[in-house]
Design a protein that fits this description.
97 residues; 81% helix; 2 domains
Length: 97
Amino acid sequence: MEQSKINKFSSRKRLTSLNQETCQHLNSIDDFKTEEILQTPAKKPLGQLLEKIAELPEVRYEKISTVRRQICMGEYQLDEKLDATIDMLLEDLIVES
């Protein structure tokens, strides 16, 4: 009975060390891939998107409060706004390509 407890403990210890090694390896690979993406030339759509995201302010509080007020009063037309926003994004990407 005691031998089985020891075996379970040692196998868990081996799995834990293997998982740590795997995670360290994956983290270095993920870091490399992230760095590659961030250095993507501006000609590629992903690079353009990342540049635009970096230029955006963190939070636009005035916009959030306006939309919340419109939603509460039942004046916010989500479908129309969503269609217009998607159209603008697609036009921006097509024009800049």
